[in-house]
């Protein structure tokens, strides 16, 4: 399960995900995410992202690999920072494995993630 919301005022795309995903769930998410991202970016202004995965257990290798491919794709590269909220060390390690981009960072604390998103690049 997932939810995508964009705050036009702060230019932050909020993503919440839960549960153990299979590749079909990932594909549905990716299609909706890519369409929303395309619409948001159509005005040329940068965005930031907050991905809340605290209700997501560690995922299978195939789903982690799919997320990794998505985050390295040209259309996914962030204009701004991407904060990933995780609930445990294994999830944090998986999130770090997905991207080595310095603009992508994992957090256990939402306030800390939001503060980091608000910092200038």
UniProtKB/TrEMBL annotation:
It holds the Pfam family SpoIIAA-like. The lineage of its organism: Bacteria, Pseudomonadati, Pseudomonadota, Alphaproteobacteria, Sphingomonadales. It comes from the Bacteria. It comes from Sphingobium vermicomposti. This is STAS/SEC14 domain-containing protein.
